Every structure is written in structure tokens, then in C-alpha cells.
Fold these 2 entries.
Entry 1:
Amino acid sequence: MSLQHFGKGALRTAKNYTKGYSHTQTKVRDATCNEPWPPSGKIMHELAQLSYNQEDFIEIMEILDKRLNDKGKNWKHVFKSLTVLDYLLHSGSENVILYCKENLYIIKTLREFQYIDEEGRDQGANVRQKAKDIVNLLQDDSRLREQRKSRAVMRERMSRGRSGYDL
Amino acid sequence: YPTRPVDKDKAEAELVVNIKKATNPDESAPKQKHVRKCIVYTWDYHSSISFWTGLRVQPILADEVQTFKALITVHKVLQEGHPVTIKEAHGQTGWLETCARAVGHDTARGYGTLIRTYVQFLLAKLRFHRLRPEFNGLFEYEEYVTLKGIDDPNEGYETISDLMGLQDQIDSFQRMVFAHFRNSSSNECRISALVPLVKESWGIYRFITSMLRAMHRRTNDIEALEPLRQRYSAQHYALRKFYYECSNLKYLTGLINVPKLGQEPPNLLDNGTA
């Protein structure tokens, strides 16, 4: 790993501290940071669990909202926030769905997100596609219900499998 | 106030900057990030008054590119802003007319005719929405509005005719935009006006299709709908050509998916989807 990445991570840790971000907010900021790797399944699962607690839910959405409205240069913030949001819609509390529906325009307007990087690559394309997918999902209640259900069944089965293995 | 975390004073100040940047004198597309902020503002505060005020105080009318970019911005905010934006826009028609009057006939960069036609189109769009407030800015398909129209066949016929009138205006405007392309430039500013036109024409097309289908299901008098079928078919071919030409503009296909229509218009007597 390059020193540059190390520097960024250290800076984020310092910012988390000086800006007084809570434990939950720090988690969201880490999950949606500017590093090139995607948010881990583990951290997204933790956030989904936290979203069932009202206080944590508000903190999570606050940071996600900031990240979603970030500028083009920080397209990774926007893209990863959409990734986290997508996960929360599938596994988080119902409040996430309500919140997203109420603020649908935030996601809808990202369907035309634009950012071309210094090397001429269209980094906005990922954001546009993800935003489209999420808008479509939010407008199709029966599909969303079904996907939430099958996700829950799968997790149930996996955790049962794991405990069986432990024995 | 919205459920998302916002700061009204900050939002007002930023809105002014966003309008200014969206309508700057560069001959390019109005930057989407600035247009987006204008759209988000109308949803956050359920008001577009500050948006219109912001446009009025900008010195844009002296410059044809700025005026054209302002019209694109207005069009997008009408399409995707909070529904109150369209209602409040009825009080702004005077300003739109001023935009058309302010521009000369033989302008250096050739936006004069485009501006006047754009204003005509936006005024027609606003007239449509005033008569039929149940439609949103992008004519996004909603079943209940369709059904509402066909309960009264005369009303439904009228609505479809009016939608088709709007579609014709989009078609002649888009052809004019293409006719004003210049070989010497990237044409980005002109092409960016096609983006809201593609979206709006697609919304209208889908609406007309499902509404005509529903009317055909309900009526015993298929003959009476013949004039609409003929016009529908002509519009299908025109739209197909429009989308085909758009699909060759790399700049545009990078921004939105351009729909692809079938060779022949869909059969209105079956129950398929558009």
C-alpha cells in the first residue's frame, strides 16, 4: 500500500476525531471513503444492523446525505454511498426505505451525474447506473419486498449453517 | 422542512451561485451539478420562487449563449423539480417572453432562432400543464391518470390530441437544433438542449401509447379513433428518426440512454407495453 493511501487514512481518522463524529458516523465515513476498494460486506452488515436503532439511523443517513451530494472529484464517495444505500434497502430497517422514498429526488437527480477524470475516463457512468438501479427498485414495491425477504432467508440459512459447523 | 439535514440560509446563498454557474458565458452544456442543485432546492423547500428570482437578477439576456443555457436549465428544473415549480412558472411567462424578445435575428453564434423556438415550446408546455395539472413535468407514466382520461372518451381524445401537439413541437424544435450544428465546434451547448427533449418526448410517447391502448379497449367505435392512430403512427416514425440521430451523438449517449423504437409502431389493439 502506498504512503499516499496511508496518509489519507490517517487524515480521515484525525478528522473523525476533531470533527467529533460518533462511532456510527465514523463507520459510515470509512465505508464510503475515497480509497479505491469497495465497502466490505462486514461493515455494510454492521450498518444495516445499526439502522434499526433510531439514533444510529439518523446518524447514518446524515453522513450518507453529505456523501451523496459530494462533488464530481469525489465520485467514489457518491458511488460507495449508493452501494451502502442499496445494501441498507435490502437488509436495513424499514426507515431507510421511507427516508429514501421521501428524498427520492436526491437519488433521481444522480442519474445524470457527470465526472470525467484527468485521464478522460468517464467515472460518472458507475454512479449513473447505480442511481438508476436504486430508483427502479424504490419504485417497484413488490420487487423490493421480495428481495428483502430472500435476503433475510439467505442470511438465516447461512447463520444456521455456521452454528452447525461450530458444533 | 425536508427530513434530510439542510441549512436554509446556506442553500439560498448556494442557489445564487449555482444559477450563475449554470448560465455562465462558456459555450458548453449547463453543468449538471449546478442544475441538480437547483432541482434539489425546489424539493427541499417546496418552492421555486428563489430560483426564478435568481434567474431574473442574473445579467444573462445580453448574451445569447447565456440565454440559451438559462432556457435549458429552466426546462430541466420544470421537468424534475418539485411539482410546485410548474405552478409557479405560470407567473414567469413574461420573463420567458423577454428572453425571446431580447435576442436579435442575426446573432453571431446563431442562437437567436433556437432561443425563440425554445421559448415557444416552453410556453406551450406550460399551457398544457395549466390545463392538465395531473401530469408531471416529464409525463412519467402513471396508471391512474391514464384511466382518468378514458372514463370520458371526449376528454381522453382531447388530452391525446394536446399531447400530440406538444410532441410535434418537440420534433420541430429538435430538427432545428440539428440544423444549427456547426462543423467548427463540438456543438456541446446545442446538444445539451436535446437531453431534456429526449426525456420528455419519451415520456409523452409512452403516455400516448398506453392511453390509446386503454381507449381502444374501452370503446366500441374503433373507427372514431382512426385519426389518432394515423397521427400516432407518423409520430412514431419521426421519434424513431430523432432517437436514431441522437444515438450517433457520443456526447449525448454518454449522458442518457437514448430509447430505441421498433421499426413499426406498436399494435394499439393488444395489451403489450410501450
Entry 2:
Amino acid sequence: MSASTNTDLIQYLLRLGDSAMVQAQRLCQWCGRAPALEEELALMNVGLDLVGQARNWLEYAAELADDGRDADHLVFRRDERAYRNLLLVEQPNGDYAVTILKQFFYDAWHFAVLQGLCHSGDARVQGIAAKALKEVTYHLRRSGEWVERLGDGTEESRRRMLAALPQVWRFTVELVDADAIEQRLFQAGLIGNPEQVALDWQHQVEAIFERASLPVPQPASHFYLSGRQGVHSEHLGLLLAEMQFLPRAYPDATW
Amino acid sequence: MYAQLVETGVKRLKTLEEMSEQERAFQERIDAEIKIEAKNWMPDAYRQTLIRQISQHAHSEIVGMLPEGNWVTRAPSLKRKLQLMAKIQDEAGHGLYLYSAMETLGADRDTEIDKLHSGKAKYSSIFNYPTLSWADIGAVGWLVDGAAIVNQVVLQRTSYGPYSRAMIRICKEESFHQRQGYELLLTMMREGTQAQKDMVQDAINRLWWPSLMMFGPSDEHSPNSAQSMAWKIKRQSNDELRQRFIDQTVPQLELLGCTAPDPELKWNAERGHYDFGQIQWDEFYEVLKGNGPCNQERVATRRQAIEDGTWVREAAVAHARKKHNKNAA
């Protein structure tokens, strides 16, 4: 692997790991507050899968970077400007309509991305993706079913979904809009075709929204923030302050 | 123990002669160690006692997610975060098992949960104490789950089949949590800084006595025990179980290099047990009545969750009905 490809791949692994980690952190905030016991179980289950995936991606990123930091260091000691997660996953949980839409958009994207990564020229990436894909298949099925239930449930649930949609939709621009790093990694055969990811995502959203009788909005437009470049919304800093408190307060500690 | 002070509604045990034929057949079945199953005849007081006990147990699993959930967003490493999330997930699962076991007795889950939210039903007193540092999470795993296991291992032999089978499944997962909790503390004590060691001792100081209270009132003040023991819902007395817990926990405490906040705690060679100091029973009864440190917050959080989630559950029901009608058409 050339040095520049190596740098690109590290960036990309951070994106995958950080998104999974931040999404899981949001799910943790639901603990004890979910609308049903079965949902407590499901939210924690999905979160657990995602923390496991974050650890796998970030361990590999740390090995490639080889600068003395490990996965824990990457999670608990990086500031928000160094985080590379999607803007979508850092958004607050809101009500269950917001939470479900965020989860669904992320899962549909995640599923398409992982399918591509299962054919990566990098064996390690391929292996992690294959394991993650099994988990995300379940996540997507679950969140898709909830979109359907809430979109085509009661008047109240539909009203809430319609209110949540514009709040969440604008952040989907990052899911379908590949940048130069992704293009180069695709050319190098390390990740799947970003255009395919965008198409698969769009189809998945259209299919589920149709079943939920929800309108698919026009494609979201760029709005001057980029989680992938470390330019986040104001929510991430607070999320990290909570998540990183202990390792920051006790830097010499072993947990 | 996750169920404390369960009312049986029975003032005095009946002798076999005083029992009706049905009651006698039931008691003989109990005495012969044959499990009672959902469709068997049972005295109404037995049924009601079990509903109270199993629902209290289930509520404890659910309310018990909150003190740990308080730290799940702040767990200090990936490994610890994964462990805690898995544990909380298991607890939600235990709650589901137990509500199912309770429903075999004809009780309704939502009705019993309403009783929790209106303050009529109890849950374990331990979950009314706050988690103030990360070490509390280890101490909860070690002491609280440890106390629960001592109780639940015995309940695997409880006379009601569905409850007994739920306990067998739950104990397997619970033992795992307890070992993880202890390992968490051991890591802080052996590899940690002085600040971490202080954190561990402080957690033990605050949670030691509340853990001992989990076994319920002392035998002399446990008016419901005799009937529960005769029915073999309970298999051992509160004080016996508490003593067993202390005897097995003190060596673990010593291995940690920590102390208990009890100057009277010492080995009694004559008894072959540890002697220990007086439990603050006033505190126990106050906490159980609702005047503990976190009672209001715990119940309010659970009530809020179910209230806020009403529209979600209603949507799920409405959607299922639409789908059903579509398929039927």
C-alpha cells in the first residue's frame, strides 16, 4: 500500500469507527427510557454491536497509523475536530420518530457500505465488514420495520414522523455524496463504489418509505458542515465531554 | 434479594387437619417437592404471594437498569462499555422472563407495571441508592449481583415451576456479571492509581450496608416468612442467606485489599461464620417506603419512559391491526 493510500485508509477507518461509536453513544442515552422493554433490549443490542464494530475499525486504524495510540485512545482522547463521524449520528435523540429515522438512514447506508467492503482488496477490512454486515442486516430490518410502523401507524405517529423527517433529512447529504478520499479508495479497490452506495441507499429509503406511506424528500443539499472533515454540529462536543470524562480526568488510570 | 417483604396475607399457618381436601393435596405435593405448574390448583394466597414476589423481582430488574445506565454513557474504556451494555441488555431480558413467569399466574404485566409507577408495588431497596463514581458500577456487579445470586440460587428450587425455571436461566447470566464487576474492582485496586483505589473503597463504604439489606428484614421481623417457607416459595430464611453472603464475600473483600465499613465484622471460629454489626433497619424501612435517596427519581424516570412511549406502542398496535386486516382481505 502506498503511503498516501495508507493515509486515506486510516481516515476512512476513522469515519467508520467514529460513526458506529457515536451512534452507539446516542443509543446508550436511551437506557431505561425506551418506549417498551423489548425496545430497551433492542437498543442496547444494536448499540453493543456498534461499539464492537467501532473497536474493530479503530484497532485497525491505530495499527496502520502506528503512532502509539490504541483504539481506546482514539475514542476517548480525540477532540471533536479530530472526530470523523457522520453528522447524522451525532444529532440528539429527540423523540422516538427522530431516533428511528436517524437509525434507519444510518443502517441503510451502513448496509450498502459494508456490502461493498466485503469485496475489499484489504483482507482485514473484508473480514471486519463480513462480521459487521451480519449485525447490520438485523439493524436495518428492525429500523425499517419501525419506520413502517410509525409512518403507517396512528395519526399521531405519522404526524411525528413527518415532523422529524426535515430535521433529520438534511444530514443525509453525507451518505450519498462521496469525497475525494472515498473516490481514491474505490479506485484502489479498497472500498465499494460510492455511487453504488448512494443508489442502494436511495432505493432502500424509497422502498421502506413507500410501505410507510411517507414522502421521500428531494435530495438534501450541502450545507457547509462536514463530519468527515471534522467540522461538526454543536452537539458532538457535549456528547464527547460526557463520553470522555473519566479517561480525561484520570489520564494515568487503568480501567 | 430482589424481592423484600413480600406479603402473603396469611396470619397463621394452617395445620394439615384444618385444610380443605384441595389445600391438603396441594401441600402434600409441595412437601413431596413436586413443582406446581400454571394449570394446577393452588390456594389464592399462594398465587397472590407469587404474583407479588415475581413482579417485585421483575420490577427490580427494570429499575435496576437505571443506576447502571447512569454510567453507560461514561464507561471509561471500550471493553468496560461493552461489558456494561451487555449487562444492561441481560437485565432487560431478565425482566421479560420474569414478567412472563408472573403472567402464567393470571396476572397482567401492564397492570403490575402501573402499580410500580403509582408507588404501590415495590422493587429492591438497593436501586434507590445513587451511583456516584465508576467504581460503583463494579461494586454493584460484585455486591448487588452477588447478593442477588445467593438468593436466586436458592430460588432455583422454589416450588412454582415457571419461577424456578426463570431463576435457572437468570443465574447463569448473573454469575457472569458478578465476576465482571469484581474483576473491574480488582483491576482498579491492582493496576490503578491511588485516586482509583480511593474510589473503590468509597463505593464499598456506601454500598456495603444497602447490599446486606437486600436480604430483607431479620427473621424475627419477617412475618411473611413462615408461610412462604411452608409453601417452599422461599427455601431459606433472610438471615441464613445474609450470613452466607457475608461469609463468601469477606474473603473477596480481603483479596481486593479493601475493608468493610463495619468495625464489628470479624471471624467467629466457634460459629464458623463472620459476626457483623447491626443493620440500620430504620433506613431500610424508610427506603422501602419511598424515602430513600433516589426513590422519586427512579419511579419518575420509569413512569416518564412509559408515558412518553405511549404513542409508539399505540402506533405498533395500530400498524399490526392494519397489516392483519390487509392479510385477511
